[in-house]
Design a protein that fits this description.
two-stranded antiparallel sheet; Ubiquitin-like (UB roll); elongated; 118 residues; 36% strand; three-stranded antiparallel sheet; alpha+beta; binds zinc ion; 2 helices
């Protein structure tokens, strides 16, 4: 999902450059929370959705109100004994309702992604 600012009337998909963009109302979700339905241009080939600047701003406001703003973050891996420690910042911990001492399950999705199930 990309959000871009549309400056011209080009109706070709910005991502695959093959499909045509069709105006539709689509549901926007972030971290599993629905924000409602918004006007978008949807590619009829790859399905990529594009929202205009006004809509993107509106979504940012909703994200802030819902406490979903700034949940993505970078963290450095620390070492404790023989294990590696990944810190979870306060925003993510609150969103996931994580508490100290709680058990979570870890498994790699592939070589570049670690899943933490709470
Ligand atoms: Zn496309």
């Amino acid at each position: 999902m990309k959000r871009i600012t549309k400056e011209n009337n080009e109706m070709e998909c910005y991502t695959c450059e093959k499909g045509n963009l069709v105006k539709k109302k689509v549901e926007f979700k972030l971290y599993g929370e629905s924000f409602g339905h918004f006007d978008a241009e949807v590619c009829d080939k790859c399905g990529e959705q594009f929202f205009d600047e006004k809509t993107s701003d509106e979504m940012d406001e909703i994200a802030k109100k819902k406490g979903l703003w700034g949940l993505e973050s970078e963290t450095n891996i620390a070492k404790a004994g023989g294990s590696l420690v990944i810190r979870v910042n306060k925003n993510i911990a609150q969103f996931l309702r994580l508490k100290k001492g709680e058990k979570v399950r870890l498994h790699p999705e592939d070589r570049n992604k670690l899943i933490v199930e709470v």
